[in-house]
Amino acid sequence: MAAGSPWLPIPEAGSISLSYVFQTADEFYRADKKGPTPGGGEDLDQHTLWLNLNYGLTENLALDFRTGYAKSEFVLAGPTIDDSFNGLADSTIGFTWRIVDEDISEHGLPSIALRAAAIIAGDYDTGYINSIGDGGNGGEVSLIVGKIFAEKLALSGELGYRDRDSGIPEEVFFNLSAYYLFNSKLTASFEYQWNDATSGLDIGQPGFAPDPNTKVRRFPELEEDFQIVGLGLSYNLTSGTNLGLNLATVVDGRNTSKSNAVGLTFGYAFDLY
Known about the structure:
This protein is mainly β. It has one domain (13-271): Porin (Beta Barrel). It is 1% helix and 59% strand. The strands form two sheets. A twelve-stranded antiparallel beta barrel has the order 1-4-5-7-8-9-10-11-12-13-14-15. A two-stranded antiparallel ribbon has the order 2-3. The mean pLDDT is 93.
């Protein structure tokens, strides 16, 4: 569900979508060693409902906004692990400025855009293995490049940098997306996401021990790296509505859950002109 796209909605038009995402894991990476979650492989689950909005402000400037509500569950309870959390997930508000439009480029260049976004932390508890997020405010910037081939195949790549407060390590991220249009109704997609924290703690290593007062471990300060691959299908129900199904899995990581995820999305396109 990478946010960045080099293809902008037209001015005074956009889309709004509602997505339900379920992710589950019975394995996680302790540093870079994969093993069962605490308790011998108990399921670590999260349910999230996302609201996404994209809107064209001008020919070359677009607004995107995302917020959501999530609930996490972990059956193993103890002095440092709660069994469930719920609350408002991290929200983002971003602006994408298109530098090059491939449709009017005189040199055959792909579409090129810059995106900057603010990150607003949710209202959940942090410091637990099943916390909804890391609980930091901050921002991210990225460069996005994409091109459409023969009106059937589209490829895009996004390279970015993310910085948040609350002791969360800085991150470099890369997203690669591919789309194939079977016909006017059905589109298939492939996505690869790579996220690398530039510093941080390892689970079980010195410095990760619980705070003596709160008994909460320092999960937000981990060096959390991951690689995710995903497949999706999107079907246009009408000219302005679509239904999407996405599947994704973590294929490699560090200090993160080896999650599998499924997402269902209903989208609606609109215009105000």
